[in-house]
Amino acid sequence: MAKITLDGIGHAYGPARTDTDYALKPIHHVWEAGKAYALLGPSGCGKTTLLNIISGLVIPSAGRLLFDERDVTRLSTEKRNIAQVFQFPVIYDTMTVAENLAFPLKNRRMPRSLIEARVCEIAAMLDLTGDLNRRARGLTADAKQKISLGRGLVRSDVSAVLFDEPLTVIDPALKWELRSKLKAVHRALDLLMIYVTHDQTEALTFADKVVVMNDGRAVQIGTPADLFERPEHTFVGYFIGSPGMNFLSGRLTGRTMSTEGHALDLDHAYPSLPQDRAVKLGIRPDYATLTAANGLPVKVRRIDDLGRKRLAHVDLGSQPLVVTVPNGMSVEGSDARVSFDPRRTHIYVDEQRVEGIAA
Ligand code: ATP
Prior knowledge:
This protein is an alpha+beta fold and 359 residues long.
């Protein structure tokens, strides 16, 4: 097991003349041994490029990749000592489940007793014990992908295990179960795992830290709680959470933001910003509440009843917001007010969060 250092790693598939030519803009980060990371972002943001650089399928056009202190930037995949799990099962249909799981260990000439013990351990973690003697050919797509996962996890001496959207072929009903299982497996095996997905639930359930990517850039690397409570970039606020964060445009002077002809007093001051600065205020729908009497006046467009909670889609002047409707509150007509939990608001300038000082 190793730590992985991304030392200015970046990649352009063609000539790199400007920043926009990079499919992956240079990133500096250290991924710690034994931790689980997810690379999360929309299609085309550079997740696979980064994963392929780590696996050795792509040689980066900038920077160095270190496994512990060893520079592996130009090493072949075989020499990197990593395990990989892909979107679709990679298994031998004619072999039994046990033989499939044992394969990576047999290849490395491990003693038979150790192989048997490890195969049993991994099969138990993935609920494959009952299938160990069955041929893989007759199994469902879900079971085959579980074998693939098992083959990726069976070696304890790998530098890292890389997963590329491994739950794509899994039945939606089983996804939830397998997601939680993978997390438990990670805790038990203590391996550095890197998991690529565009599904925020998968990323947030699995990872100790999530790397949120947009347009070739790692816009924030943080725990699921960091990403929810303190999005450092408006993209993270918008992309994480369902629905995402609200952003209200206005101008800030001292602790007062003016927006749509109203003045909003904030909990924090932003002395680093000039007076009358154009800003965005970010607030999660969970921390914005519809009220009958207090707060900023809004027009209610519609209310979505999600069973567990109700969300109101409202307009503050020309700006749309999604806010929580408190239990028991009935909404008559379209006139209402909203209030924000002042401890949960954030100020953004040029899409980046600005740290405030408690007033
Ligand atoms: P997806 O979730 O759709 O796989 P991704 O986040 O993994 O997307 P990448 O596959 O890393 O994104 O692609 C990042 C950018 O690099 C995209 O604009 C893509 O078109 C481009 N790209 C990827 N592979 C190549 C290639 N072999 N040659 C040229 N451009 C490429």
